[in-house]
Amino acid sequence: MRTWITLTEAARQLGVQAQTIYAYVSRGNIAVMPDPADPRKSLYRAEDVAVLCRKKQVGRKRAALAAGTIFGAEPCIHSAITTFSKGRAYYRGRDSIRLSQTSTLEDVAAILWNARTPISFDMDDTPLQWEERGRQCAFMSLAALAANGHSTHGRTDRALHTEAGRLVALVSQAFGAQCNDKVRFTHERLALGWGQDSEGTDLIRRALVLVADHELTSSAFAARITASTGASLPGCLLTGLAAFSGPLHGDASGRVRAVFDHVERVGAESVVAHHLQSAIPIPGFNHHLYPDGDPRAQALLERLNPPEELASFIEKVTRLTGLQPNIDVALAVLAAQLKLPRDASFALFATARSVGLLAHSMEQLKVGKVIRPRGRYTGPVLENAESAPPKGDRNGVPDAATVDRNRVFKTILR
Predict the structure, then answer these.
(1) Which stretches of sequence are listed as region Disordered (predicted)?
(2) Which pLDDT value is given to residue 412?
């Protein structure tokens, strides 16, 4: 292999113009020497050019990988929080369906947060930021805390767990949870605020455990991005819940509730026929991660006794489409059966998922790197760089230092 190559060969191997080769030389990336055969020309170290070629190839591969993973099914983020196996979600190795039989949301928080001591969601005296309870109250209250929140850097796990517990309590309180001397857990506080008996209280507990986390969702990714910058826990949670609130994510149960309202008005037969004849997808059925059915929905629905018309609707959709109901249907059925507030499905989901979002945020802190994807530019053609004023030029005329510097480089690199 030749040790030195010409300017034309270097530019061809790298796929760049001669000006770019000059820039590489000026930065010390490519060594240069006078051409013995023609002192007016220069030769360039072939090994340096080869190294730059390899770096460019790696950059292309990384760009392709990034484009595929951000919008694909395999995001490149390592996590020890939740995974899927045999059609079920596992919280740090624990079967989430089995946990829902007896565990509380506080128990699940201790698992997901990898806490060494039991977790409690203590309500403090932080004022809520809206008169009426609901999502607006939750978001505004978190925003007020995020505006003056403390960075997560330099704080112990125990301190973060304490603050995270208070944030979950704040979210539940914003959705109507109430506290007295007899209730300790989130499901009991929500049940008290919503006027539920012991049966309803246990159904709320099961639902909270089942939806506490779901691996690297878009909302978890958003929360992790915020956490990677060292932002406060309220800021991380607010970011995650903002992504979570979209109708294609956590607020999908709202679309299901709208269909249920239609069923109550005109009947299951009419609603199913309308959707099938119009080729309109019925929200709440099928889940891309669970082709054989959402086990969270199955675990909750088997404990429910929905109103007759809703039960008929679910049966008809399943029989005629072959699609199974997912967790959004189960939460909407739960809210309808217990006659909960209209936004209760989202309230249950958001309160429970706050635990998972905070788990992802705190795990990301230990990585110690800012998540910063690169963009692939697809905009208008760039202006001609050669027409831009040279460095050091303010009025179209290069200054003396710039002229001298350009003269030296032209002499060395010719």
Answers:
(1) 380-400
(2) 42
- pLDDT-derived band at 201 (thresholds 50, 70, 90) equals very high
The pLDDT value given to residue 65: 55
CA separation (Å) from 226 to 243, 250, 339? 12, 19, 36
Counted domains in the chain: 3
Which residues are tagged catalytic? Answer: 287, 328
pLDDT in tens, 69-100: 555 545 568 899 999 998 899 999 999 999 99
Cβ-proximal residues to 143 (8 Å cutoff; 6+ apart), any chain: 129, 234, 238
Q: Are residues 303 and 189 in the same domain?
A: no
Does 177 score more than 60 pLDDT?
A: yes
- Among 238, 225, 228, 222, smallest CA distance to 144 is for 238
Measured N-to-C along each axis, helices 7-14 and 46-70 cross at an angle, to the nearest 10 degrees, of 20
Question: What is the domain-level CATH number for residue 301?
Answer: 1.10.230.10
131-170 core/surface letters (b: 16 or more CB in 10 A; e: else) = eebbbebbbebbebbbeebeebeeeeeeebbebbbbbbbb
- pLDDT of residue 32 exceeding 70, the answer is yes
Give a yes or no: residue 184 inside a domain.
Answer: yes
Give Cβ neighbours of residue 219 (< 8 Å, ≥ 6 apart).
Answer: 240, 241, 243, 244, 249, 250, 353, 357
3-state class (DSSP) for residue 5 = strand
- Decide the pairing of beta strands 38-45 and 82-85: unpaired
pTM: 0.76
Instruction: List Cα–Cα distances, 261 to 187, 213, 233, in angstroms.
Output: 26, 28, 37
Instruction: Say if 289 falls within a structural domain.
Output: yes
Altogether, the residues listed in the chain come to a count of 414
pLDDT tops 80 at residue 68: no
Print burial letters for 42-75: b (CB count within 10 Å at least 16), e (below 16): bbbbbebbeebeeeeeeeeeeeeeeeeeeeeeeb
290: tokens are 């669970």
Own/partner contacts of 245-250, CB < 8 Å, gap of 24 or more, are 245/135, 245/139, 245/346, 245/350, 249/217, 249/218, 249/219, 250/219, 250/346, 250/349, 250/350, 250/353
Q: What is the mean pLDDT of the chain?
A: 88
Q: Domain check: are 128 and 176 in the same one?
A: yes
Domain match, 227 and 359 both: yes
